[in-house]
Amino acid sequence: MANGSPMMAELECRRKPITWILAVTCLCTVSYLLGAWQNTSNALNSNVITSDESNKIGCAHTSPSFGSHSLDFQAHHQVGLNESLLSSVKFPACALKYSEYTPCQDPRRARKFPKDMLVYRERHCPAKNELLRCLIPAPPKYKNPLKWPQSRDYSWYDNIPHRELSIEKAVQNWIQVEGDRFHFPGGGTMFPRGADAYIDDIGALISLTDGSIRTALDTGCGVSAKYSQGVASWGAYLLKRDILAMSFAPRDSHEAQVQFALERGVPAMIGVMASDRIPYPARSFDMAHCSRCLIPWQQYDGLYLLEVDRVLRPGGYWILSGPPINWKVHYRGWERTAEDLKHEQDSIEDLAKRLCWKKVIEKGDLAVWQKPINHIECVESRMVYKTPHICKNNNPDSAWYRKMEVCITPLPEVNSVEEIAGGAVEKWPGRAFALPPRISRGTITGITLKTFEEDNKMWKERLEHYKRIIKPLANGRFRNVMDMNARLGGLAAELMKYSVWVMNVMPVDHKQDTLGVIYERGFIGTYHDWCEAFSTYPRTYDLIHADGVFSIYQDRCDITYILLEMDRILRPEGTVIFRDSVEILVKIQSLTDGMRWKSRIMDHESGPFNPEKIMVAVKTYWTGEPSPAQ
User: Fold this and answer.
1) The 3-state secondary structure of 472-490, one letter per residue
2) 282 neighbors 371 (Cβ within 8 angstroms)
3) Which residues cross the membrane (predicted)?
4) What is the pLDDT of residue 220?
5) If pLDDT is split at 50, 70 and 90, which confidence band does 82 have?
6) Pairing relation of β-strands 541-547 and 268-270?
7) Hey, what's the torsion of the CAs at 582, 586, 589, 591, to 10 degrees?
8) Exposed (0-12), middle (13-18) or buried (19+): which is 289, by Cβ within 10 Å?
9) Which of 101, 265, 313, 379 is the Cys-Cys partner for 148 at CB 3.0 to 4.6 Å?
10) pLDDT tens digit string along 332-360?
């Protein structure tokens, strides 16, 4: 057939469009790659938070700068949001009377609930029509908290202007006002020589320095402002021994002791032994402590000691000081009869025996019991002790609005009396990166050794990236850190080298409950539903990490209120790291722009092709305005 035939001409015409399409596609691809590379370089070099000025305590406040370049995701991505969402809503400041507002522990709302078993001091959150749609203000003279470790002993008076506690506790050497600061000498009702010496006394009875005890629970931490050890000094001085204590106490009427603890940089949260389980998984704490916490251990069929038993690790210790221990010496000062105190101690001793606990020692003002490492002998002892019985059909980790039960939480089964139920954990600090028993035993579906190792590797890369884009992370600017969706606790593990502690939060709706894994690694945390307010005071965290949180909750509740809650608990000039899809981050940014936050959206640390993006936001410094009457 001739070359100039109509058929060949038709084929040639078909080839030309295909060639042009391929050429244009290649050019577009190369252009996109070059642009993405350039944007990523700009993001890494210029989207950096610097806050040198804000590190100068008491000096002028300078909002951190992100640099002049940013990634314009609103322009380059079709988000599909309602345009009204992208226009910033301006949130007003709440009245100054809300400066210490705790939504789910509001004393005014608490009056509506029964006082029996302290139910009125449990969580009672506002109804939807009662939610505040405003920003909680800082006190008028608020300053950035002092850096750790100075903050352990001192805090600014203007940040928590309550003189009541220092006046009431003057004799006990708890807290003193010195000019414009509070001073925390470390004293307490049961440790007049100071918390440090008191802990040394405990250390003479059980080992506190060999790494076998890492997580501790301080029950009460000021349950009565008149009598308890107060302001979490026990937890503050345990930190120098590499022991991390979770202190909890109910919302005070005016003394705000949990707030003092967090202001000092000591882990604490609002909570109470009442009718609900405390929000921690089973087998979490290596040690639990009560120093004149005034919890009625022997009442309600031993309900509260059974709850301590639930959260204690096998072989864990319970330490009790104050009434009724050493009652023969103290009963006159305690203004109680010798008979009453003897009956109370006998009841506690009997209950501990029925829980299968062993009394290790009683010396001076201290008594120590130990939980068994497994329940082989305890199950057999039910032939002798009919009560309390072993719980049945019970999820031991379920602890969110779950009522306490008058039964012994069963330990995992073992094959011999020497085996530790649920598996042994390594000593600290090796424990942080050792494979947790809950994973090695396959008790969490879908999480394996490989998952754990990959998660550790991912967090190492993430933290290196965070250090590049958030300069204050490595220079001591942050102390109290919250991970709103902690997963396996990788952030807490990678932050070990810094002077920070992390409140690891496990959303109650998460498909995989890994909070027990976090405790096995030697870190602390709590269960929480982010559709409700967190159990803390305003301005108690320096850095908040929100990984996929809004993907979890966007269809469950109004994310506006989650962001307002984050603003409530974040300190002025505090930082938030969001990780989520572009669509969600753009929506978040449209709201935070109206909350006096500054923010930037940037690419994932792996580059522009990862659909997950990062948004870093900083809450600017502002305070409430006093009324003329004030």
Assistant:
1) HHHCCCCCEEEECCCCCCH
2) no
3) none
4) 73
5) very low
6) unpaired
7) -130
8) buried
9) 265
10) 999 999 999 999 999 999 999 999 999 99
